[in-house]
Amino acid sequence: MKTILNIIWLVLCGFWMACAYVVAGLLLCITIIGIPFGIASFRIAGFALWPFGRTAVPRRDAGAASCVGNVLWLVLAGWWLALGHIITGVLLCVTIIGIPLAIANFKLIPISLTPLGHDIVSTDQPFAGR
Predict the structure, then answer these.
(1) pLDDT at site 117
(2) Which CA distances in Å does 63 have to 15, 70, 111?
């Protein structure tokens, strides 16, 4: 079932959201200070491409630097990427087949707002990152 949902997701909105994360990552990697944010953006691009069967778990070793980084991320790229998830989620809610995809889109909003301090793991091993 995960494979079917991932394929439908990829066709309807996953490719475009992953492209948005890659573009944000490339823009953030222009400066040396933005490289950690760019890496986080590339990591989330893979998650946005195939979200079913994976989940984001908080890291225990994330400290104050992650908090400060998340505030900078929110200002630089997070708000716009979260807005993309909201728009595509609302558009997916128009059809019945799109409702599970819209719910997955809404679940991606928190990780798009605060990506630092999270690991993306398989749902078969949700405690692997802890």
Answers:
(1) 83
(2) 32, 11, 17
Name the 3-class secondary structure at 57: strand
Q: How far apart are CA 101 and CA 107, in angstroms?
A: 10
104, 51 in Cβ contact below 8 A? Answer: yes
Query: pTM here?
Result: 0.85
Residue 58's Cα: distance from chain center in Å?
Answer: 14
CA diameter of the chain: 45
pLDDT of residue 126: 56
Which residue do the tokens 């889109």 mark?
Answer: 105
pLDDT at 18: 93
- Does position 93 have pLDDT exceeding 60, yes or no? yes
Strand segments, DSSP code E, in 51-95 are 54-58
Q: How many CA atoms lie within 13 A of 16 on its CB side?
A: 11
